[in-house]
Amino acid sequence: MIWNIAKKELLSNLMTLRFCIGTVLFLVMSVLFTYVLLSDYQTKLESYNGYVSRNSDELKKLMTYQNLKPTIYKPPEILSIFSKGVEENTGNSAQISIGEVPETTSTATSKNPLLSVFPVLDVTLVFKLVISVLALLLAYDSISGEKEDGTLKLMLASGVPRHQVLLGKLVGGMITLAIPIAVGFLMISLILEFSPMVKMTGNDWLRIALMFIFSLIMVSLLFNLGLLLSSVTKHASDTLMFLLFIWVLFLLVIPNGSAYLAERIRPIESREKVDSQVQEIRGRFEKELDSKRKPWPQGNGVQSDAGEPWGWYHRFATKNLIRYKQELNALSEPLRISYADDAWQANKAYLESMKRQKDLADLTSKFSPISLYEDLVTSLSRTDVPGSKRFANQAREYRQQIIDYLYNKKAFSSLRYFTTVKEEYLFDISNMDEYGLLRKKYDSVDPKPLDVSDVPQFRYRPERITDTMDRILPNVLILCFISVILFMCAFVSFLRYDVK
Q1: Of 291, 298, 293, 299, whose CA–CA distance to 325 is shortest?
Q2: Which of 4, 197, 267, 333 is an S-S bond match for 412, by CB 3.0 to 4.6 Å?
Q3: Are 382 and 462 in contact (CB under 8 A)?
Q4: pLDDT tens per residue across all 500 residues of the chain
């Protein structure tokens, strides 16, 4: 009997105008958004490949170790077409320098870039706007509407148990909603599969499959909400009014209100204060360096500089100047690294305050199942805050690899750290004839770039699906729990429902 009721509900729903309009609108918008976002992804991918290639070419032209300051890039996420998350608000590149710990999050303003309240164009937005409404529209008159038509009374009078009626309506409604969702995901997957610039991995397909499952869980929750309200109201119009009010709460009020409350309850420390702390740390570095280094050599004489991709270097200089800077670098660079780590601690506290504000907003937004679902898709798309933080952590790890590389090369105390001049070309300023001869000889030979083939290479390591699931499992369980509770409440209400 449950299956018979489900088939009746399915056929009835398929023939309604609301289902046809909702399905067509969802599929058209999903395909359109996919093509637009895929074009945007391809543009980002071309830029990423260009940046990486240029960075590699510039590395081959490196003349001195002091200018080993490569820029690393996070590859664009193909799954961002489902949810852009915070990818548009956080950095996807970081310059590596021994004098500064990289941090990719945009902190140019006092506003928290992790706390965006404005919707972005992605497939999740289409789902929130269309499929969520469609689920409510299919459920709002499932009980109260049939009561008004008199069909519910006839069905129960024929001896059909109430629990079978409710289960049949749930099964029929879910099959109906699964059709546009499945077709939408299938069409998006086909577009991705046949796109020439997209290389999907097994991990990516698994993530898309999980998005599909979580989408079904989400619509089941909304459909059960519709069943509940339909079984406690007498008129379908009242049910629809209450459901649309709740939908607005879930979609707009709670997410935006959560961000607003988080900004008020847990404000971020002013950026000016953090910058002041960083400047004070740099001042201490200069003061300690001044107290330890030798006086500037008298009569430092002639020097000439040249440029390279990431800075400048001494092309030629007097012996006393070269020796002075050689000793100074051996002293200053380890000290610079140490103070850069201190400055990072000040920046870290600021960035952590932004994350705590974001965590508070996420916690309060869990009252909205739509926000919960969006968080799940964003996590699976690898465009959430942990994804941005993961790149930042790997950037700092790579900086430490560069520092270890320079230490292993004993670069800080070597001439090649800051100049291309060799020992045999060093000259004394007191002998300008010697300078002229050496300079003429030296200029006739172009210095060769450094052999940096053994420099550590940066490779971004995306999060594994198992780690993602460990993070999002509580939210999945919350969605499932709410859906079950709503159905149980609907069942209890329907048992007491007056069909007269």
Answers
A1: 293
A2: 333
A3: yes
A4: 788 888 888 888 888 999 999 999 999 999 999 999 999 999 999 999 999 999 999 998 899 999 999 999 999 999 999 998 888 777 789 999 999 998 765 544 446 666 665 567 889 999 999 999 999 999 998 888 887 877 877 777 777 888 888 899 999 999 999 999 999 999 999 999 998 888 899 999 999 999 999 999 999 999 999 999 998 888 888 899 999 999 999 998 998 898 888 888 888 877 888 889 999 999 999 999 999 888 877 655 556 677 777 888 887 777 778 888 899 999 999 999 999 999 998 888 888 888 888 889 888 888 999 999 999 999 999 999 888 889 999 999 999 999 999 999 999 999 999 988 777 766 665 555 666 666 666 665 677 889 888 999 999 999 999 999 999 999 999 999 999 999 999 999 888 877 66
Structure tokens at 77: 């996420």
Spacing of C-alpha 431 from chain mean position: 61
Distances (CA, A) of 20 to 26, 182, 239: 10, 15, 21
Phi, psi (deg, nearest 5) at residue 315: -80, -35
d(CA 378, CA 384): 5
Ramachandran category for residue 311: left, alpha or beta (phi over 0 → left; psi -120 to 50 → alpha): left
CA–CA separation, 386 and 401 (whole Å):
22
Tokens matching residue 326 = 């050689």
Distances (CA, A) of 172 to 10, 50, 69, 176, 394: 5, 51, 61, 6, 48
Q: Other CB atoms closer than 10 Å to residue 199's CB: what's the count?
A: 10
